[in-house]
Records
---
Amino acid sequence: MSLGQPSAADLIGERTRAEIFALVLTAGPISRTGIADRLGLAPSTVTRLLPPLLAGDYLRETRAVSTGPGRPQRLLRVNADRHVVVGVKIAPTHVAGVLTDMGARVLARAETPLAECSPATALAVAAELVTTLLAEAPTRERALGVGVGVGGHVDSRAGSCRYSAILGWREVDVAGPLAAATGLPVVVDNDVNTLVVAQRWFGGGKDVDSFAVVTVGSGVGCGLLLDGALYSGASGMAGELGHLPLEPDGPTCGCGRRGCLEALASSGAVLRRLRRCPEAADCPDVDAAVALARGDDGPAGRAARAAFAAAGQALGRGLAGLCNLLNLHKIIIAGEGVTAHDLFGPAMMSAFEEHAFSEAARDCRVCYDPVEDDLWARGAACLVIRETVRAPLS
Ligand SMILES: [Zn+2]
């Protein structure tokens, strides 16, 4: 959005401005003093970073009101009607999207199933979904852009998916075709990163500066917020917790290597282990495995409980590694597999506590969040809002 490379100080300023906007969005109306207190900033920093947000009409000030002792203060609030934004999540079986206002409030939602998820099909469906959602907007002129979450290795600068095992994609330009089809700017990121932004703004990450979202289910994903900033790594691949090598002679992983966490803790790993039990050899899917584990007193039920516990144990070792390395405040377990946490959680927590170094486990809260379906897409919309308010063009 600007010419030339911004300096490190500019980048820190932009990041802080996005944090200020997010705080006003989640905790506003709030005074300048309140912002400085909550974010640990000097009042002069808040005063320096606010003008572009006010000039661009992204934030507005109320009339001075009395908020306690001292002089009445003007409060800041988000001008939610300034723009609408579309957030999209591309999954192997469907494309889900939401239309939000500038306050990331969901105005409309839509979902289209995918018969197959080739890039051409999925991106055409995504473009149609954007058009459908924008038809719900008061005026299309106010559409700011489209945020897209894709599972896998995403190069967000290039707007492309380098590799996605779950979609079977390699070197796919996501932003180009979608921008051409919709006429809007497109921001692309890893889907777990969109969830990290949503958790930071609306969920369990609101009150902590360093946390991880770990998704469990058909794969194991991870997104990181470190010292208040989304961490993507040198080339966008940070957080590949699923491919942490845990057992050199373990089962083969989807990535072709052996003994990765994902090969030990995914729903496929649970099923593989369970089917070794003759009484459960024909268990069709993970839902049936959950039903066996919760309701069967025989050998199949015992095998199912053991399979979930083994997955939990591997996950707990992975989480301990994550926590030992990064000293996180919190780990939020999400994803479609989280609803079975009664089955894998106890083994996960004991392995986590066993392998966490020193006080790392005590300092880190682990919680489960069966994320609402549209939070992923809402997080993708937040990416666009965040990019805009970092360095607003007024
Ligand atoms: Zn792997």
Note: The chain has three domains: 11-78, 84-197+375-389, 206-370.
---
Amino acid sequence: MALAPASIRGSFSVDRYPCASFSEARPSTARLSSSLFQGIRLVFAKETMNSRSFTRADLHSRLCARCAVLESVSPTSQGDMTLVNVDLGDRSYPIYIGSALLDTPELLQRHIKGKKVLVVTNTTVAPLYLDKVIEGIKGKGGGVIVESVILPDGEKYKDMATLMKIFDKAIETRMDRKCTFVALGGGVIGDMCGFAAASFLRGVNFIQIPTTVMAQVDSSVGGKTGVNHPLGKNLIGAFYQPQCVLVDTDTLNTLPDRELASGIAEIIKYGLIRDAPFFEWQEKNMEALLARDAGAFAYAIKRSCENKAEVVSLDELEGGVRATLNLGHTFGHAIETRLGYGEWLHGEAVAAGMAMAADMCVRMGWIDKSLQSRILSLLERAKLPTAPPRHLTTEMFRSTMSLDKKVADGKLKMILLKGSLGNCLFTSDFDPKALDATLAAFCDK
Ligand SMILES: NC(=O)c1ccc[n+]([C@@H]2O[C@H](COP(=O)([O-])OP(=O)(O)OC[C@H]3O[C@@H](n4cnc5c(N)ncnc54)[C@H](O)[C@@H]3O)[C@@H](O)[C@H]2O)c1
Ligand SMILES: [Zn+2]
């Protein structure tokens, strides 16, 4: 029997686990709940259910594969973990989200392949979490050898010279084809370690342990990896999917306030491009996020990962819809590049970029002023900038934006908002005069 989307509504039993049942939690996700999992919830991306025709046997085998992993995992101390599946056929992988997951090493151990592991981290994160991760992996037994490389901290080190330190360590310690690279840190470490894993010996296993909001809601999901070039951000890289992503929300407790806010910019982005109810939830819960309320963060991370997983499942290599995840990034990358990497945080530049994109859309009559006000107000409440530094000139924006990866056949394509909250377009079909006017409004000259 083929399960059409409609038949997923309601619930049905899964033969081997009679107490497991599907029920539609929201239009966009289906949730498997089961007393077997003692609070562990499985959330499958919408596409798993809707975009293909699934037989009961298909679902059964998928569930059994997941159950086999989860059954032997002891519950975390909070007894609550969410799992978001990134559905990419045979390269699908789980994102585990929860408190104290670094204290649940079985999760990590299950995805370690081979006998050699290289943990890549930086000078800030290493003293906080490296020992715990190494101990956790070693606990797998069987003579697994864990090496680590500690890189200097900062976006300015997201370059080829620093990348080479990962390869140096991997070669010195004789990492082989079956080894696993583990990224422990924020987006910079994740992007660099992922690119190293994609290219070392033409590709080795890769696990992400993201420790910033930015990395937990965005950069660790979807397989984009790479380094910067002095002339442009992320210009050198590869698509490379991890085996799993392990999000321990407790790691956010050590994150500086400014970094926390930077990651919230990407959370706001998901609401704007495709999830109006999530944006409205943020309007009600922004102060809870800033206060690091664990429940609010768990929800925001889960909803962000679901949104990203859905988009990536539809368009892994960014042929179309995936580009919408770059709302505000064309302006934002220009800000980051012109100020010098690291001067403004990525999310800060994206926040100003989203404000500039909204300004352009109002000028073209694509969105109402009232929506623009809501966007600016939420960004301000998140303590994020809503304009670039004034000393950046229109010429600086233009020349940097012309190097943007979204330039095709000499034409700049942008992600722009159109219509009601939650709708956007990826298009080159916009009024260039609106772009001129926006740049003129935000730059002194
Ligand atoms: N691959 C993607 O799809 C994607 C998406 C978004 C952003 N990115 C990239 O991610 C990078 C930005 O990531 P980021 O904002 O995480 O920056 P980051 O990696 O520089 O981390 C921010 C700072 O927080 C520190 N830190 C990390 N975890 C910590 C913790 N738990 N406690 C205390 N300090 C901690 C880091 O050492 C660093 O100083 C950019 O390079 C951006 O291009 C990539
Ligand atoms: Zn981003």
Note: Residues 1-78 have pLDDT under 50 and may be disordered.
---
Amino acid sequence: MNSTLLTKSLIDKLWKASHLIRKAKYAVAFTGAGISVESGIPPFRGENGLWNTTDPIFLEIEFFRKKPLQSWQKIKEIFYDSLGDAEPNIAHQVLAKMEERSFLETVITQNIDHLHQKAGSKYVYEIHGTYKQLVCTECSSEYDMSFADLNYLPPTCFVCKGILKPDMVFFNEPIPAFAKKRSFEEAQKCDVLLIIGTNAEVLPAADIPIKAKEHGAKIIEINIKPSHFTNTVTDIFLQMKATEAMSELGKLLYL
Ligand SMILES: [Zn+2]
């Protein structure tokens, strides 16, 4: 996709968005696949989505429980062989600087790629979990993935020899209760919600902007195409790539 032409109307909207962020008492970002695409991470859904080329059964929790080896072989190929090398882009970096300069309180993300933390964000709620941590299916011990040797699959627990599972939400698996609870608290508390790169088609993520709006937050949305938020809850729609919009907002906030 070519870079977006900065029209007068877009410049005006960017300025208004930066003004809202400046005035905000408690701004929160809500991110999805669209922020990481430019770090080379394919989205799951939509055109060019992972599920066009890969059978999503490997990420179903029932399949993982029955056939952990097959599931792990595919998971390793999709996530672990590439995600470790992915680097945050300017959109992640601007969010981290916003937090550092107190323009932003927290990031709620649907991404499992750990790129917000890699960029320096400290308060991140990962509602779909993270690839970076593994959890034992037997005793619930947790490990940083750097402790696991993925040359031998499936990786097993050092404590009980149980099979380790990536600590991300599989299909038909519930959202981690703590992250969900905190995300909704943040949505209710914020006075500005910055939606970046997500249509949030899946529940409960889809409810976060709605909840924020119900509690009086102004909604700034950055997406390359209108989403179902655009004409319902969004106050300022920046139809741009995440990197372009965040880079412009970063300049306007003197980051
Ligand atoms: Zn264990």
Note: The chain has two domains: 1-41+87-128+174-255, 43-81+131-168.
---
Amino acid sequence: MTTAARDEIDGNLSTLEFWALPQERRLAAFARLRELDHPAFFQELKLPFVKTGAGFYALARHADVVEASRSPHIFSSEPCSNSIADLPRFLARYFGSMINMDDPRHAKIRRIVSRAFTPRVLEKMEDDLQRSATRIVDDLLAKGSTDFVTDVAARLPLQVICDMMGIPEHVRPMVYDRTNLILGLGDPEYMGGKNYARDGITRFGALYGLLKVLAAGYELNHLAMKLARQRRRNPGDDLVSALISANVDGESLTDQEIGSFFILLVVAGNETTRNAMSHGLKLLTDNPEQRALLLEDFDAHIPGAVEEIVRLATPVIQFRRTLTRDHVMNGHEYKAGDKVLLFYNSANRDETVFENPDAFDITRSPNPHVGFGGPGPHFCLGANLARREITVMYRELFTRVPGIRATGEPDRLFSSFINGIKHLPCAF
Ligand code: HEM
């Protein structure tokens, strides 16, 4: 590795400019990181009003991401796994759910909600999924060429997660809007047109962004509390009813735990699967031979296609862990308190694990991608649900509208956390 290449990486990953670069240049930087004989360290971006640390190690290789994921007693999700800086207390109240907890507390809370994600429950959902997918394609056919993200990919995940939580129809647009804002923090579309990657973050800009996210957290929490009150009077078979009646070691969940859990689920349910579906349409458009293969025998190829889409799209770019003690992993000495970022996008293109990693190959087998997280206690709770949603939506879509294709480049979300597509023109 030349000094110039190293310098280029050093200047990159911790800056907003890096995340505004075209996808190919970012992927090239991660390829160089994987070549290093040690994980690169990046200083943290200093943000007004947020307590930032010294920096983080970038885990770019598959082996490192897998080992850190399966060693939660050393690579802890506390105090925070969903942002590089520790969440300020006023935000942790809304966004500090089980994703930011270690066992045993994490395991107990996860057990309560995992009942809503068992294969039996998913099987029971199948008819509803199918009905929703049919309606979405009816509307698409009536409308003609359209924005695939808002008119197709966003609709099914929103419907499913809101049904699961018992969220009434009339507040669903608000839920969609607020979850977009929470994970779109920093993107000009959600920040009043301000382009932080180009102009830098002023104190005013940071305050504006934090207040918007705080307000979104407050509104979703308020909705969760309202639903919880209703379910206490009138229990149903939705997840909010399960949360209020849950018993963890003789204790009920507190209002704060219910609220933050509600927010985690609506955000995770909404902001991931739609990106996988949208990236999938673009990949199938750009790779006509793979699309032909899928359409030739949909049932045989769809499971492999879904895994390959999640691998190449990697809708969640990274999560963080913090070292609980000094530890050596793959030759590198980490110190207690060090932060590491698990770059799933890079692990999923690791050439020592995936042959021809940039190729879209729906027959790839094995496909040990980490798009749903590495093996360990935090492995995505909604992975099987997401797989079902994509399968049902694509079956309906490609059966009734086999000519559907992306007709332009994706309008990408500016984010170091979510590999999002905000809009994608399509026609058929
Ligand atoms: C393609 C779609 C999806 C992707 C790529 C994805 C990705 C991920 C990843 C990478 C993690 C690991 C976090 C960590 O290790 O710290 C995770 C966790 C999680 N996901 Fe997903 N997810 C998807 C869909 C969903 C859906 C549909 C739901 C729920 C409706 C969901 C709910 C969760 C929850 C609750 C966790 C936290 C699990 C825990 O901390 O034990 N996800 N997801």
Note: The first strand starts at residue 40 and ends at 43.
